[in-house]
Amino acid sequence: MRRLLLLSCCLMSVGCATTTTNEKPYVIEVVTFNYKPSVDAAEFWRRDAKIETDYTSRQPGFISRESGRSDDSGEVLVIVRWETQADADASMRKFMGDDSVEDFVEMIDASTMKMKRYEVK
Questions:
Q1: Phi/psi of residue 59, each to 5°?
Q2: Residue 25: helix, strand or coil by DSSP?
Q3: Which residues pair with residue 38 across a beta bridge?
Q4: 75 and 33 in contact (C-beta within 8 Å)?
Q5: What pTM was computed for the model?
Q6: How does pLDDT run across 55-97, given as a tens digit for each residue?
Q7: What domains are there in the chain, each with its CATH number?
Q8: How far is Cα 31 from Cα 3, in angstroms, rounded to an integer?
Q9: Which of 37, 45, 60, 95 has its CA 20 to 30 A from that of 108?
Q10: Angular region, 109: left φ>0, alpha ψ -120 to 50, beta rest
Q11: CA–CA distance, 119 with 121 (Å, rounded to integer)
């Protein structure tokens, strides 16, 4: 019984330690869209991977990026974590006018694109 009580206390303190330790605030950017019907899916995903490694991950304030596609709707989801709102804003401004991503932007059906940002405190 004593061992069980000791184990319970240890587990509770580990759980408390991990939930009370806060990372500094950051921003989650959620973008959804469909790619154009004429776009080759394999080419889109190759290009998407290059966008992450060659462009987005090199922007100031970048934390992480992941993307996926819904089998049901065909909608693409991109989640990017940024250190600050200003970092997210600067990246989006640069992205929309950067020649190195122009072919990727052309693959996106702009009428389906939606973006939201969330602050994690």
A1: -85, 145
A2: coil
A3: none
A4: yes
A5: 0.79
A6: 999 999 999 999 999 999 999 999 999 999 999 999 999 998 8
A7: 23-120 (3.30.70.100)
A8: 49
A9: 60
A10: beta
A11: 6
